[in-house]
Description:
The chain is of the alpha+beta class. It folds into two domains: 45-285, Beta-lactamase; 291-386, Sandwich (Peptidoglycan synthesis regulatory factor (PBP3), Domain 2), CATH 2.60.410.10. It is built from eleven helices and 17 strands. Strands 14-16-17-12-11-15 form a six-stranded mixed β-sheet, with no helix packed on it. Helix 2 (73-86) packs parallel to helix 7 (184-194).
Amino acid sequence: MRIKRYRVPVLIMILVLLVTMLSLPVAAAESEVAPTPTFTPNCKSAVLMEASTGKVLYAHNPAEAMPPASVTKIMTLLLIMECMDAGTLKWEDTVTASAHAASMGGSQIYLKEGEQMSARDLIKSVVIASANDAAVALAEHTYGSEEAFVARMNQRAAELGMTNTHFENTNGLDDTAQNHVTSAGDIAIMSRELIKHTEILEFSSTWMDTIRNGQFGLTNTNRLVRFYRGCNGLKTGSTAKAGFCVSVTAEREGMTLICVIMGAENRDIRNAEAQKLLDWGFATYGLFTAEAGTVGPVRITGGKQDDVILNYPRFTAVLPKGEISAVEHEVTLPKTLTAPVRKGEAVGKITYTCKGNVLGEVSIVSNETVEKISFGELWVRTLRSLLCIG
């Protein structure tokens, strides 16, 4: 049977339309769906977060509240470092152990009641060896009692937006705890805040150290520090209630990932799942970074000076590696500014996009104040210009 000649163009048009309809959804799906691992971590919950942006790259039951064991000490250490920032605690300060601190079980440095030790050695003991007695001694020294310290832990958790957390002690011992819980998502949040204090990473990346003038050895409870490339922290924990937990930090090619594993059956599974999730994160994602810079000079009308230099900050976004080269930016800035302009005032912005999606923006701000010129000053300036006076 022969097809009539006038039907051929119609058939071609239908075929083109079908091909177009079939291809478009695939392209859209590839650009909209975030990458996911090909495995589910063998644990109760897990979170993978990029540290500089706080972007969660993967989550498995991230909001489920459960006992965290010694991972609790991330918040304890955060408060201690914030005391350092405030000047209420110094590295060389002498801390005296109370009977309560000396009574702690589990991981410890075997403090005796009345024993004195520097804040540095106690902090080092908490970070490296997960010492429960050292954590309590520091809490009592900084806030007067463990109860007052724990109240501040819960307050700080609320400030950070940790909505699935309630602390009852400083160290995570949970034999008698009734509601000492947090979630993988909340642990990632407080981990991100803690590692802003780089001194902590110096300790948490240390495999072995000593205290008491070299007489007592400390070995890092986080074996990944020794065996996983780029690992520099952060905190392990395990109890019968909590199972095996960890918050791992690792850095490669300028990107730091935070991996939280909660409720693994044993230490080996915990470490293996953390490694798999970190490997996937480093293989899949990378950082786009636009460094801080200046614009100008930009002309100012009606000001005591004719122009001003503008500044903009560094911008960072975490993206699938294949999309980093597709990032574009658009500068929104008037050609001239009108006085007065205040130092730090936003006068424009830079918007960063990738494949049509807005990643974020930074403000372009003035680096100095330029006051509005008065009529008298304007008259004097005009007169000097006419008389060619410098």
